[in-house]
Design a protein that fits this description.
- It is a single chain.
- The chain folds into three domains: 68 residues, Beta Barrel (OB fold (Dihydrolipoamide Acetyltransferase, E2P)), CATH 2.40.50.140; 69 residues, OB fold (Dihydrolipoamide Acetyltransferase, E2P) (Beta Barrel); 73 residues, Nucleic acid-binding proteins (OB fold (Dihydrolipoamide Acetyltransferase, E2P)).
- Helices cover 20% and strands 35% of the residues.
- The protein is an alpha+beta fold.
- It is rod-shaped and about 115 Å long.
């Protein structure tokens, strides 16, 4: 038999019934929740997150730089719950904000552990470029793109690659990354490995990479060595360009290796016979010349 209370529910009873209709899963605005794609209409995905009504998310939110969106009915996705219900009675949800929230958590862990992250350069801005870090957008200063200044960044655009996070401020939503740091670290590892395979006194072929007033830098296959002007020839050389040209292949001897700084000193004349020794052999002491 129905009672007066059941016929006229109080405000608390109504609130309890409303909460029950939402299900047993607790939903908080401003949190990331899981939902199921129940329909696709034109450029919108209809997603059921367990509330009274579904929410709609633009299909473009499932795509991004270096990431193609391939979403279909039945897929379970994570979305950011902005509002449980708007003026139209629909849940207000966002895939972009969900990915951004997920990304920030992962990025903070990587930053604290000094780990590299994967990102995609997708746009040019004042002073540098923007990088998509799987939902979070970071700033890549022009000086941090490469070890040496690079004119055309086109080949690097829209291609996933590793970056190092230099600093991040979640409150302000700022992230600064570097590609140069990653390249320098890789180069240092390669230099260390190459130096370990070289020995003082070893004769090796190299390619003249650069010429200065005091000598020439010779590429030994991934690491440079310095050929000082006094070690180019037994005769006096006023400038290295008198004997060498950029791109020239030369046979040099490794004179000294500094394993701490990875600096390598080379000699070209050391691969040739000392003319004074040759003269002494040909003309012993007491002979007439």
């Amino acid at each position: 038999m129905a009672t007066a209370n059941s016929m006229n529910p109080s405000r608390d009873d109504f609130a309890a019934l409303l909460a029950e209709s939402f299900g047993t899963t607790e939903m908080n605005e401003g949190s990331v929740v899981k939902g199921t794609v129940v329909g696709i209409e034109k450029d919108l995905a209809i997603i059921d997150v367990g509330l009274k009504t579904e929410g709609r998310v633009a299909l473009k939110e499932f795509t991004g730089p270096g990431r193609e969106g391939d979403i279909k009915i039945g897929d379970v996705v994570e979305v950011y719950l902005e509002r449980i219900e708007n003026a139209l009675g629909e849940a207000v949800i966002s895939r972009d904000k969900a990915r951004r929230e997920e990304s920030w958590v992962k990025l903070e862990k990587a930053f604290n552990a000094n780990e590299k992250v994967t990102g995609t350069i997708f746009n040019t801005v004042k002073g540098g470029y923007t990088v998509d870090l799987d939902g979070a957008v970071a700033f890549l200063p022009r000086s941090q793109v490469d070890i040496r200044p690079i004119r055309d960044v086109g080949p690097l655009m829209n291609s996933p690659q590793p970056f190092q996070i230099l600093k991040m401020d979640r409150r302000r939503g700022n992230i600064v990354v570097s590609r140069r740091t990653v390249l320098e670290e890789t180069r240092a590892e390669q230099r260390h490995e190459l130096v370990q395979n070289l020995e003082e006194g070893q004769v090796i072929d190299g390619v003249v990479k650069n010429i200065t007033d005091y000598g020439a830098f010779v590429d030994l296959g991934g690491i440079d060595g310095l050929l000082h002007v006094t070690d180019i020839a037994w005769r006096r050389v006023n400038h290295p360009s008198e004997v060498l040209t950029i791109g020239q292949t030369v046979m040099v001897k490794i004179v000294k290796i500094n394993h701490e700084t990875h600096r390598i000193s080379l000699g070209l004349k050391q691969c040739l016979q000392n003319p004074w020794e040759a003269f002494a052999e040909k003309h012993p002491v007491g002979s007439t010349v």
